[in-house]
Design goal:
By secondary structure, the protein is an all-beta fold. It has one domain: Jelly Rolls (Sandwich). It is built from one helix and 18 strands. Strands 1, 2, 6, 9, 11, 12, 13, 14 and 15 form a nine-stranded antiparallel β-sheet that branches. It has a six-stranded antiparallel β-sheet with strand order 5-4-10-16-17-18. The radius of gyration is 29 Å and the shape is elongated. The termini are far apart. This is Calreticulin.
Length: about 300
């Protein structure tokens, strides 16, 4: 999987009742397997009641010795907004982000991030980073997300776009390269999305990966390796792994049904049939009479 991109964009969507969401990107020392941390991509949230989210995103590639950071955003101070571009896509009523540490936190200053400020609004902003290729190197996408209120329906996943994106026209249907992260909607949907774009189509993973659905912060990590294998980790614990070819439908199936094939006229549908070549053994014992299984003794 060789990805080239340079645009990073979060998008937040809200409909229905009161909807408040918080996203936070900050540096921590939680990542002990990757050597380096980076932050931020694209987030799309659909919610029908109050919700808070805090997130840390990491995007990097690493070799056995060194890791190369492609993008980093800490939201350390109010100057973050000078580097980000809000979407102006027509037909959407966009809200504005505020700089906040949320309802609860470890450090009121160090844990500050961006937070949505208005109910029932769409939120979308983006920031560019330099073009890169992960050819021959593992690619890591990582972020933390926190739902401060028990969430009923909302997506906390991130997306990475390619270089062709018009930042001021970004919207929910904009093509992307990778989508990764938790999605919750009622008791039936509590999963981690892992979606790759390939030849103009979005390919969803064929496995069901359950996400966390409590009020605490959780670290989500996707690792795509040069040997076409992958790993998904939650809080640095592996929850899924495998081969890209086996777990996504990137390639056509090796076998398909022949649409021209027809059942022969003499096809036998019975589960078993008599063997026309079978012969009775020479010592076959076939008595002239056999007991009647339905017979009863007269009174």
């Amino acid at each position: 999987f060789d990805m080239r991109c340079r645009l990073l964009m979060p998008e937040w969507k809200f409909v229905g009742y009161s909807c408040i969401v918080q996203w936070r990107f900050h540096v921590s020392r939680l990542i002990h397997v990757l050597l380096v941390e980076v932050k931020v991509v694209f987030v799309e949230i659909f919610q029908d009641y109050i919700m808070y989210i805090c997130a840390l995103f990491a995007l990097l590639a690493f070799s056995q010795i060194n890791a190369e950071v492609y993008f980093e955003e800490n939201f350390n101070d109010k100057s973050w907004e000078d580097n980000w571009i809000y979407s102006e896509h027509p037909g959407k009523e966009f809200g504005k982000f505020t700089w906040s540490s949320g309802k609860f936190y470890n450090d009121a200053e160090k844990d500050k991030g961006i937070q949505t400020s208005q109910d029932a609004r769409f939120y979308a902003l983006s920031r560019k980073f330099s073009p890169f290729s992960n050819k021959g190197k593992p690619l890591v996408v990582q972020f933390t997300v926190k739902h401060e209120q028990n969430i009923d329906c909302g997506g906390g996943y991130v997306k990475i776009f390619d270089c062709s994106l018009d930042q001021k026209d970004m919207h929910g249907e904009t093509p992307y390269e990778i989508m990764f992260g938790p999605d919750i909607c009622g008791p039936g949907t509590k999963k981690v999305h892992v979606i790759f774009s390939y030849k103009g189509e979005n390919h969803l993973i064929n496995k069901d990966i359950r996400c966390k659905d409590d009020v605490y912060s959780h670290l989500y990590t996707l690792i795509v390796k040069p040997d076409n294998t992958y790993e998904v980790l939650i809080d640095n614990e592996k929850v899924e792994s495998g081969e890209l070819e086996a777990d996504w439908n990137f390639l056509p199936p090796k076998k398909i049904k022949d649409p021209e094939a027809k059942k022969p006229a003499d096809w036998e549908d019975k589960a078993t049939i008599d063997d026309p070549t079978d012969e009775k053994p020479a010592d076959w014992d076939q008595p002239e009479h056999i007991p009647d299984p339905d017979a009863t003794k007269p009174e």
